[in-house]
């Protein structure tokens, strides 16, 4: 099968390798023209204008490493060679807090790094893969179509580039990410526009990267993501002795926008007792990276079971995207790509309408529950932040949210809760799977009254730090 993948980011490249390993002929077209440099130099020399979070924190969760080691072992080997950090949260927690070491704790191993480093390695690995051609600096203008297999449903047969060149394909895969132009392309060929469920995710992000003189990482004395009233903080290991610190706030909190100033960023982080020491390194970026206007968005390409078009499909963020602070995007994108590879192994190629319907069903079963869980988390966390801004406690009658918060609050004092929390955080088990354990749910309910007062600054102290 001839496959064209539009978008040469992480999941576009991983999808290309997965399909090429199965013998498909794959062409990847990528709008950004700059070729990937040596991974060691990528942070300083590679510009990826098409990826707005390129300079912000990334953490590739355990699920990404687990799937990649099985499906793309050449990639994980190349990442290790390039200095990617193999990091296990459970191993970094004292034995007395986690109830000792357990035989299956290795499942929490993550292989991670800065986005620039990891994508450069992925790009080079993909370029070396037989049956893959990557064309950079190539923009798609529109979709090519042929005779439809179902009345009223356009059938895509390739893409037309801005240069006027056409690339014919048996299947086109949109991997252009959060800002995917696919709905417009579909409308241009007479297709029904996919149905979007869209909402501003409500968060803004401020981040810096650091490196220590010794190449060692700061000690982990708290969770990688910590919530402090009106803000959250991510402290994430990366590659080659680097790490990132990111502050997350509500996009409605105008006062927090002052964190874009490096001195104010530092002043706020110094207030956080479990994160302040992550500033003890040399900044490797001159400014505080900022990202806003991020959407929670999911697209239905087969509303009512009828595909809007055949011969084309969307993967990963082109299909659905959420709050990046939970770090689930790369893991879920790779799971999505593997599901596509598997479906192509099972489905007859001469039934494009059936394939499109099957893909919608697979996506709904494999990936959508994680999207819904993430959006639900976002809504509650934003409500918590707003309540803190207003000086009020946050109370919810949502039992699922109570259980999720219970996992986070008690994970550092109970080994079973810790591992259940890590299973969710690392996308190894969904919240629904974790909470199907009645003993765990009973334990969380028993511990509700044990919640300690939160450590860290109150709202007035954060505002004072921002005022300088």
Short descriptors:
single chain, 468 residues, alpha+beta, Alpha-Beta Plaits, six-stranded antiparallel β-sheet, five-stranded parallel β-sheet, 36% helix, 22% strand
The helix content, as a percent range, equals: 25-40%
Low-confidence parts: none
Structure classification: alpha+beta
Extended strand count: 19
Output the radius of gyration.
Answer: 23 Å
Structural shape = globular
Fraction in beta strands? 15-25%
Overall pLDDT level:
94
Largest sheet: 6 strands, antiparallel
* Cα distance spanning the termini: 61 Å
Q: How many DSSP H or I helices?
A: 16
CATH topology of the domain at 201-291: Alpha-Beta Plaits
CATH class of the domain at 201-291: Alpha Beta
CATH architecture term of the domain at 201-291: 2-Layer Sandwich
Walk me through what this model shows:
The protein is α+β, with helices and mostly antiparallel strands and 468 residues long. Helices cover 36% and strands 22% of the residues. The chain has a domain at 201-291: Alpha-Beta Plaits. Strands 11, 12, 13, 14, 15 and 16 form a six-stranded antiparallel β-sheet that branches. A five-stranded parallel β-sheet has the order 5-2-1-9-18, covered by helices on one side. A three-stranded antiparallel β-sheet has the order 6-7-8, covered by helices on one side. Helix 3 (62-71) runs parallel beside helix 9 and helix 4 packs across helix 6 (115-127). It is globular, with a radius of gyration of 23 Å. The model has no long low-confidence stretch (mean pLDDT 94).
């Amino acid at each position: 099968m001839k496959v064209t993948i539009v978008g040469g980011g992480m999941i576009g490249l991983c999808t290309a390798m997965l399909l090429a390993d199965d013998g498909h002929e794959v062409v990847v077209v990528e709008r950004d023209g700059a070729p990937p440099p040596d991974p060691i130099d990528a942070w300083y020399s590679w510009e990826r204008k098409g990826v707005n979070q390129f300079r912000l924190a990334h953490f590739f969760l355990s699920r990404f490493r687990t799937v990649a080691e099985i499906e793309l072992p050449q990639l994980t080997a190349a990442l290790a060679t390039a200095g990617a950090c193999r990091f296990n949260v459970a191993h970094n927690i004292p034995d007395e807090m986690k109830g000792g070491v357990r035989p299956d704790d290795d499942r929490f191993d993550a292989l991670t790094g800065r986005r620039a480093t990891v994508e450069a390695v992925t790009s080079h690995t993909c370029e070396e893969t037989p049956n893959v051609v990557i064309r950079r600096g190539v923009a798609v203008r529109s979709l090519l179509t042929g005779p439809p297999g179902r009345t009223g449903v356009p059938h895509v047969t390739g893409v037309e580039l801005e240069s006027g060149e056409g690339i014919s394909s048996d299947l086109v895969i949109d991997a252009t990410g959060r800002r995917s132009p696919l709905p417009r392309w579909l409308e241009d060929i007479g297709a029904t526009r996919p149905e979007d469920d869209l909402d501003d995710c409500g968060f803004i992000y401020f981040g810096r990267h650091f490196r220590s003189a010794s190449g060692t990482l700061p000690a982990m004395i708290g969770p990688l993501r910590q919530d402090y009233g009106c803000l959250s903080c991510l402290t994430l290991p990366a590659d080659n002795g680097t790490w990132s610190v990111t502050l997350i706030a509500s996009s409605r909190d105008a006062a927090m926008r002052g964190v874009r100033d490096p001195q104010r960023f530092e002043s706020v982080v110094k207030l956080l007792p479990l994160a302040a020491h992550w500033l003890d390194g040399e900044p490797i970026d001159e400014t505080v990276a900022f990202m806003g206007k991020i959407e929670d968005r999911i697209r239905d390409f087969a509303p009512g079971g009828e595909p809007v078009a055949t011969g084309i499909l969307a993967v990963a963020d082109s299909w659905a995207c959420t709050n990046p602070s939970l770090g689930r995007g790369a893991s879920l994108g790779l799971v999505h790509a593997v599901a596509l590879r598997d479906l192509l192994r099972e489905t007859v190629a001469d039934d494009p309408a059936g394939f499109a319907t099957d893909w919608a069903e697979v996506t709904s079963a494999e990936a959508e529950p994680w999207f819904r869980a993430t959006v639900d988390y976002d809504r509650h966390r934003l409500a918590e932040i707003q309540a803190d801004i207003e000086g009020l406690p946050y109370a919810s009658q949502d039992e699922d949210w109570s259980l999720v918060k219970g996992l986070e609050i008690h994970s550092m004092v109970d080994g079973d809760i810790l591992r259940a929390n890590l299973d969710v955080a690392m996308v190894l088990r969904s919240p629904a799977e974790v909470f199907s354990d009645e003993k765990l749910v009973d334990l969380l309910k028993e511990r509700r009254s044990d919640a300690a007062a939160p450590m860290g600054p109150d709202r007035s102290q954060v505002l004072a730090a921002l005022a300088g």
